[in-house]
Amino acid sequence: MSWDETADRLVGAGADGEDQAVEAALRPKDLDEFIGQERVREQLSLVLRAARHRGATADHVLLSGAPGLGKTTLSMIIAAEMGAPIRITSGPAIQHAGDLAAILSSLTEGEVLFLDEIHRMSRPAEEMLYMAMEDFRVDVIVGKGPGATAIPLELPPFTLVGATTRAGLLPPPLRDRFGFTGHMEFYAPHELERVVHRSARLLDVEIEADGAAEIAGRSRGTPRIANRLLRRVRDYAQVKADGVVTREIARQALEVYEVDARGLDRLDRSVLDALLRLFGGGPVGLSTLAVAVGEERETVEEVAEPFLVREGLLARTPRGRVATPAAWEHLGMTPPADRGAGQGPGAAQQGLFGA
């Protein structure tokens, strides 16, 4: 299961159609309005101001980080700051070099090309992109076999903004051609509170400070999730209360949607519950854990596990997945007496299940 396929989770960082529509209305228009990512904003501001001062096209930009942190928004801000149009596409949509050549040949001077999930682009297109980024030209192959001819096609200067959730999958030759690389960090709670207040104002939602803090604390460090939770809490407040989002209303609403105080949802808690109750805290193999919760291995590994590890509730070891003391505490359970010796029931089962 990919990030896009998990967009229907309330705390999933993928964007569905509703999210995209709301994000368009809530999206900041310039760097001063953009909340969080202080270091990236400062560095990017210098790059763009220097390019404007020279009257030149901005350097190519690579933005990496988890979904929902603002990579698409920053790409649009780059275009706005440079006074240039933006073309948006994605790596999976470019499966042949001809697909990329068609896009590049239609760019105008100074235009920003935003390439989302750039690590998923096909290898032939990737190799064509090297020359386009460096020399602003591509070689279009006409014909097949021994009679094939390469026709050089000059391109106007443009700015490529690449976005990736897995920067490690980008080959070094591609990474090296970006003039600026920015890594998007997860947001601190106080930054998400500002995001919630701003979004509430734009959505005409009356919200109290403690209500915004409650939503921010359950948003997994991700603005997209914070905006999604705000909309669901708004719905609850309008139907069940007087429309004002307070801390208590936010708590009640998110209990209905099964998002707990640390931002865990049903899937996250199912993984932890199975790990603790069935396997004594582990270690246990990922495939076995996935079967226990009735999900695909990829779903547990790519959707639930990263957040549980980041929260310090689960650890990955050579012998398998292991629950931390914080996991036992979060679910209100007491670890077995022999956990201190590292010999819970999961350890005995490890020989059967493997990692």
UniProtKB/TrEMBL annotation:
Which residue intervals are annotated with compositional bias (Low complexity) in the record?
335-355
GO molecular function (one): helicase activity
Specify where it is mainly localized.
cytoplasm
Could you list this entry's UniProt keywords, alphabetically sorted. Answer: ATP-binding, Cytoplasm, DNA damage, DNA recombination, DNA repair, DNA-binding, Helicase, Hydrolase, Nucleotide-binding
Main enzyme class = hydrolase
| SMART domains, alphabetized | AAA (SM00382)
Q: Where is this region: Small ATPAse domain (RuvB-S)?
A: 188-258
Membrane-spanning regions, if any?
none
What UniProt notes about the protein's domains is: Has 3 domains, the large (RuvB-L) and small ATPase (RuvB-S) domains and the C-terminal head (RuvB-H) domain. The head domain binds DNA, while the ATPase domains jointly bind ATP, ADP or are empty depending on the state of the subunit in the translocation cycle. During a single DNA translocation step the structure of each domain remains the same, but their relative positions change.
What is the protein name given in its UniProt record?
Answer: Holliday junction branch migration complex subunit RuvB
